Amino acid sequence: MSWAETLGRLRPETVDVAAARWGARQPTLVNAGFNHVYRAEDHSGPLYLRFTHGNLRDTEYLTPPLTWLRHLHAQGAPVNEPLASLDDQWIETVPQKNDLFLATAVRGVAGPRLSDLPPTPALYRAFGHAIGALHQASHDFVPAPDMPHMLDPALPGVFPSWRQFWHQAQEQARKEPVIKRTFEALSSWVDAVGGPAHGWPDELPLTRPGLGLTHGDLRPGNAIWTGERVVVIDFDEPVYGPLANDLARAVFEVPRQQRAALWTEVLAGYREVAQLDAGWGQELPRLLRARAALMAAWNISESTDLTQLRPVSGTLAPVSLWQLRQNLLSSEYDG
């Protein structure tokens, strides 16, 4: 099933129906990726409506991340506020002929994304501080015992683990020699530090040093600078695993010549509000290589012609399969 084709069936009148359920008006499309996101206005100001299709992501998938986001906001973490509809529903189902779309909403946050700003030390220290506040607010979060695993109700736990994602991607990784070698080199380490085999919570202790719920995609594009602090957005795919993964993702796409200095600032900001074992501060090269290999494997589909990889342009260029493979071949993530 094509995500683009399925979400492309979403009609303006269906968006209007969903917006009205939050008392919002004048929805305007701002992002047409793995979700379709619309900006609208209600009596309190801007809000963002996020749409998916029931055949792509169902209520069981959407509920755990939304529950976590509600907890984080209630704890005062720097996240955008999740919004219930006028009927007090966190997820609204919106039928459209033979399709069923699902909508959620969050309050808008004013300010530019960090990806649109120069990567200064002060900004990345604030980024680290925000990540630390997010992790600290997650410390006592435990999902309801009857909540199913967001990817597969047959699996134990609720949230997928980094280790689970890694093993799920191995079949695709084997199709490309550079990615295959990187997986082989890092798999024993991921097994050791990547959390449970399938999901969290599991039968082991809830709290484990260095591990916890992570945002999963904490790139600068998912962080907003308000002028006073960084606010984290887009809680779409939380993952249980090394907390340092969120920190490494924050600097994954910054220029290599700036990365070490910005990593120092991210760590310093993080440690203003949360603890992190000193050993993780030395793991940036391995965290970056693992992230690159995993993203590269995710980019390989059944139709991918690995003999025709070429550079791409635009915002996705740094995380394209060609670029990730080139980075793994070079020393981009070393030192």
TrEMBL record:
Residues 32-274 form the Aminoglycoside phosphotransferase domain. Keywords: Kinase, Transferase. It comes from the Bacteria. InterPro entries: Aminoglycoside_PTrfase, Kinase-like_dom_sf, Pseudomonas-type_ThrB. One of its GO terms (molecular function) is amino acid kinase activity. Pfam families: APH (PF01636). Belongs to the pseudomonas-type ThrB family. This is Ser/Thr protein kinase RdoA (MazF antagonist). It comes from Deinococcus humi.
